[in-house]
Amino acid sequence: MGSSESQPAQEPEPEPKTADPEPKPKAYPVPYFTSIPGGLQPSQVISVSGTVLPNAKRFHINLLAGSDIAFHLNPRLSEKTVVRNSKIKGSWGSEEKSLPVSMPFIPGHSFKVEIICEAQCYRVALDGQHLLAYTHRLKHLPAINALEVAGDIQLTDVQV
Ligand code: GAL
Questions:
Q1: 77 closest CA partner among 54, 110, 99, 48
Q2: Is 74 in the pocket of ligand 1 (CB under 6 A)?
Q3: Residue 53 forms part of a structural domain
Q4: Residue 55 falls inside a structural domain
Q5: Residue 32 CA to ligand 1 centre (angstroms)
Q6: Average pLDDT along the chain, 160 residues, taken 10 residues at a time
Q7: How far apart are alpha carbons 24 and 41 in whole angstroms?
Q8: Nearest CA to ligand 1 atom 11
Q9: pLDDT tens string 77-115
Q10: Within a domain: residue 26?
Q11: In sequence order, which residues have a C-beta less than 8 Å from that of residue 114 and are 6 or more positions away?
Q12: Which domain holds residue 71?
């Protein structure tokens, strides 16, 4: 059997990939809004990662039910506190400020906040460590169907 003269048809070379081998993190605009499809339910986790800007005064992560803020998580770098509150029918309630550690959010540092929605409360973990709990004031969880992140941070990841 003689070898054939004709060359097998050559597949065209794939186009060289122009994307970086390490994908750039998606840029999240701030303020950032996204919906939580179906609203919250127990055991759901909302995760927000970012970097506190060097001259940050404050930022917040809000869980929203229409015009109500079910949960306002508000690190205030200027006061070295992490304020938690709810705004219901236009009025802020009483602030919760206690922490088991000194101010854990630091200008220039990255962070990952996980808000774990449980039946009675939100539990907030920072970089994988439990930080605080906040008993639900707006108790109808399915109505809490949007997330807002705003203030003096660069936002690098959001998972709802
Ligand atoms: C207010 C502030 C709001 C919110 C609220 C929480 O003083 O203007 O943005 O942080 O406190 O209690």
A1: 54
A2: yes
A3: yes
A4: yes
A5: 18
A6: 51 61 74 98 98 98 98 98 98 97 97 98 98 98 98 98
A7: 32
A8: 92
A9: 999 999 999 999 999 999 999 999 999 999 999 999 999
A10: no
A11: 45, 46, 47, 124, 125, 128
A12: 36-159
CATH code of the domain in which 79 resides: 2.60.120.200
Cα–Cα distance measured from residue 98 to residue 124, given in angstroms and rounded to the nearest whole number: 13
Ligand 1 contact, 88 CB (< 6 A): no
The whole-number pLDDT of residue 27 equals: 74
Nearest CA to ligand 1 atom 1: 92
Eight-class DSSP state of 43: T
Mind giving me the DSSP string for 46-111?
A: EEEEEEE-TT--BEEEEEEETTEEEEEEEEETTTTEEEEEEEETTEE---B---SSS----TT-EE
Domain count, the chain: 1
Dig out the tokens for 49 from the structure: 């990662």
Residue type, 85: N
The pLDDT of residue 84 is 99
Q: Report d(CA 85, CA 47) in Å as an integer.
A: 19
What is the per-residue pLDDT for 4? 45
Whether 57 is in the pocket of ligand 1, judged by its Cβ within 6 Å, is no
Residue 10 belongs to some domain of the structure:
no
